[in-house]
Design a protein that fits this description.
Layout: H1 14-18, H2 21-40, E1 42-47, E2 50-56, H3 60-69, H4 71-88, H5 96-114, H6 123-150, H7 154-186
Helix pairs in contact: 2-3, 2-4, 3-4, 3-5, 4-5, 5-6, 6-7
């Protein structure tokens, strides 16, 4: 006997069967963690009323999403985290290009780890994935997008990143490695790491 929703008792709705609960739970947790760390555990440097440089841990969960769940999962976590964070605590006008760069920060590590498909994930591979994302997004895309949107000079955008990004690569790689190893042993990652 069909229910009011047109679903027979005992059958599963189509959406539920396509998106595992574990994946949704990990996505929600990483998005929330990114939003909180970006707003609480970050130093923001505004230039002309617009956030030009942010140094902190808000990107760490986005990098984790790409490494743990793959490029699509990482992109979605990054983009949604930016949208939710902007909705909660905006700094300046909304710029869709920044949402794109946040998504790319999750996409790139997943793509880099695909180069090592079938190989054990280790510190060097995690560091390569994090470095690729931080260089391409943190040093190239985000400054370019901020320059396009607000005409902030590269001379203001690049120097702080030359100091912060190498430190973040080392620190984030170490943290991700220390968290990934026990989660992988327990089989509790959202998907096969690097998928």
């Amino acid at each position: 006997m069909p229910s009011d929703l047109g679903v027979s008792p005992g059958s599963r709705p189509a959406l539920r069967s396509r998106i595992p609960t574990r994946l949704l739970t990990w996505a929600a947790m990483l998005i929330a963690l990114s939003v909180v760390l970006t707003r609480v555990a970050s130093v923001r440097i505004p230039v002309g009323g617009v956030e030009a440089v942010r140094i902190g841990f808000g990107t760490l969960p986005i990098l984790m999403a790409g490494i743990w769940g793959g490029p699509v999962f990482g992109f979605l976590v990054g983009a949604v985290a930016d949208l939710v964070g902007y909705g909660i605590n905006p700094m300046g006008p909304y710029v869709p290009l920044i949402t794109l760069s946040s998504g790319m920060l999750g996409l790139i590590p997943g793509l880099v780890l695909r180069l090592f498909a079938g190989k054990e994930i280790n510190f060097a591979r995690i560091a390569a994935a994090v470095a690729a994302a931080e260089v391409l997004v943190g040093m190239v895309l985000t400054p370019w997008f901020l320059h396009l949107a607000f005409l902030i000079p590269y001379a203001v955008l690049i120097p702080p990143r030359l100091v912060s990004k190498p430190l973040e690569v080392v620190l984030f790689s170490l943290i991700i490695h220390l968290v990934t190893v026990p989660l992988a042993r327990r089989g509790t990652l959202p998907a096969a790491a690097g998928r």
